[in-house]
Amino acid sequence: MSLREKKKIETKNRIFEVSGKLFKEKGFENTTIDEITKEAGIAKGTFFNYFPTKESLILYFAEQKADLIYDLKEEEALTHLPTKERIKRFLVAMAESYEKDKDLTKLLFMEYKRYIEISRPELNKERSPHYRLIKVLLDLLEEGITKGDVRNTDTRMAAETLNAVYFHTLMMWLKSEKDFSFSRDISAKIDLLFEGIGD
User: Is the N end or the C end of the chain the one with fewer CB atoms within 10 Å?
Assistant: First the structure.
């Protein structure tokens, strides 16, 4: 990576960090682009080079989480653990990334959801966190079937179930007034899903 490219990434991340700080202090709606550029020490034109609108910061947050999914998958690809443990470690690591800043995660996640519902933008499906998570879970399950530590099952349905449990748990954690661990909760639910309910 060239120095110029590195500088561009640093600037984009700086704008996002400053925006997140201001969003937590003032709320998304009450934060202006002028305040973001002033706090970041950049010109307005520089902001628009990276983010065409304030709402594009929300989409960037979603893309970062989607990219994290593939980064974590690459790390898990290096392990020789059973499939259940690989899936559990992968989902717990994602949960831990959200736990680093619950307030900002909640704010941006809810704004992202609202933005999608209101504007119905033409999003690249393959860049969405849901699509990427299902794809990674499908890959892990299919590898598990090949290795023989996952029974031959409908992998699409299994991946969608894991995805639904993950995002439901995320929403419950974000909305909860109680202080509980998202990562520990999802870990216990993965155990339950793999062990099954019944005799």
Answer: C
Q: Which positions ≥6 away from 164 have C-beta within 8 Å?
A: none
Maximum C-alpha span of the chain: 64
Residues whose CB falls within 8 Å of the CB of residue 73, separated by 6 or more in sequence, listed in order: 90, 136, 139, 140
pLDDT tens across 107-117, in order? 888 887 787 77
Alpha helices (H) along 78-180? 83-99, 102-119, 129-147, 155-175
Number of Cβ within 10 Å of residue 31's Cβ equals 21
Read off the pLDDT band of 103 (50, 70, 90): confident
Phi-psi domain of 148 (left: phi exceeds 0; alpha: psi -120 through 50; beta: other)? left
Mean pLDDT of the chain: 86
Do 157 and 90 touch, CB atoms closer than 8 A? no
